[in-house]
Amino acid sequence: MDSFLLELASTSQVDTMPKYISLDQQYSLACEELKHPENPFIVRILQEVKQDEETLKKKITIKIAGNNRLIPVQKVTDDDFQILATIFTNNVFLTGLDLRYNLLSDAGAVHIAAFLQDNHTLLYLNLMFNDIGTMGAEFIAKSLHRNETLLHLRMTGNKIDNKGGMYFAAMLQVNNTLQKLDLGDTDLRTQSLIALATVLNYNSAIKAINLNRPILYSEEEETTIHTALMLKVNCTLVELHLCKHEMKNFGMERLCDALYENSTLRYLDLSCNKITRDGIKFLGKLLKHNTTLEILDLNFNRIEDDGAFYLSEALTTHNRTLQALAVTNNNISGKGLVALAESMKTNLVLSYIYIWGNKFDEDCCVAFAELIKSGRLKPTGTDVDPYEVDGNTYFAEVSHGLKRHYYWTPSYGQPDNHDENASLAITPVAENL
């Protein structure tokens, strides 16, 4: 590979290194200087990074993901990251770093924090599903008190616990740069969720936050109430994920009441909760007045036919803002699905609808087949593909959705393909969303 010559900023640890060399050479020399064995996986990734002038003008994201299934992987350790930090700190072309599914621990978080304080170009950092705990969360959160460039941080799957969530809440009181923060699957608890909601009353930078799957023991839905109170006054948040919050109809009512006064939220994720048709009744009334929501994720609830009727009524008669609706696995039968299909004939704004996992019958299959055949619904705008056998119409599932590649990267094709990640096309908030 023809390597474009890169300038290596001098660091205290690699002062003797030549000044103009390629990335993989920089890494090899840094390992030699610090007497650390090379990680062959890192070497291979760095060799594949395009380093021509045109690429560097656009900036690049380097993906050293430990769940790569196409090449042999030796996962990145704390010591490996320390070497990477020495060569990345002042390289101005680097704007994104993906280190998901590696072996970074609290000790590595110390190096990550130092890197975030010294680096002035990184916009995106993905630390998804490493082994960072509460102590590591403290180091990273405190480093963001001073960082003025990072826009998007993913801590997904690191068990930072309640105290770690409190550190990030404290950080948001100071940091006015970060636009998207992903704390899903990090074992947040009631106290940290309330603290984050309280801080968002005042933070004017965060546009998207993921609070999926906290550890909750109360049935009183205190966290949902505080989130609703925040939505009444927050005028910045565009994307909110509340998956697996044990939310019931009471919490749904509180959220809907708050959203009458909110004019910025465009993407609301309420998947995997305990919302039934009674909760959707409040949502249907909201949709008749709301002119902001563009994406609504209700997957894995139990809205049934009545819930589908409430949604279809709002979409047919009033709402002309919602672009994507996901209602997979909601115990909806053919009647409810036909009602949703009929609403699309009148509502020309709704372009994406995902229905797999419900109770399909012939009428439902025919209704969606006609929508696709007429061109009203694009085949890439839904997760079902109608086909006929002996004159009867059936559905096959296709890999389309709002965010199919949230937890994993496909072996082939583009991970940010808009057919499989429609939310990227509808409401992009910041780089690498």
Q: Can you walk me through this structure?
A:
Helix content is 37%, strand content 12%. By secondary structure, it is α/β, with parallel strands linked by helices. Helix 4 packs parallel to helix 5.
Q: Topology of this protein?
A:
Layout lengths: L5 E2 L12 E2 L1 H11 L6 H9 L4 H6 L1 E4 L14 H11 L5 E5 L7 H13 L5 E3 L7 H10 L8 E3 L6 H12 L7 E3 L7 H10 L8 E3 L11 H12 L5 E3 L7 H11 L7 E3 L7 H11 L7 E3 L6 H14 L6 E3 L7 H13 L5 E3 L7 H13 L9 E6 L2 E6 L24 H5 L7
Parallel strand pairs: 3-4, 4-5, 5-6, 6-7, 7-8, 8-9, 9-10, 10-11, 11-12, 12-13
Antiparallel strand pairs: 1-2, 14-15
Helix pairs in contact: 1-2, 1-4, 4-5, 5-6, 6-7, 7-8, 8-9, 9-10, 10-11, 11-12, 12-13, 13-14
What tags apply to this protein structure?
single chain, two-stranded antiparallel ribbon, 15 strands, 12% strand, disordered N terminus, eleven-stranded parallel β-sheet, alpha/beta, globular
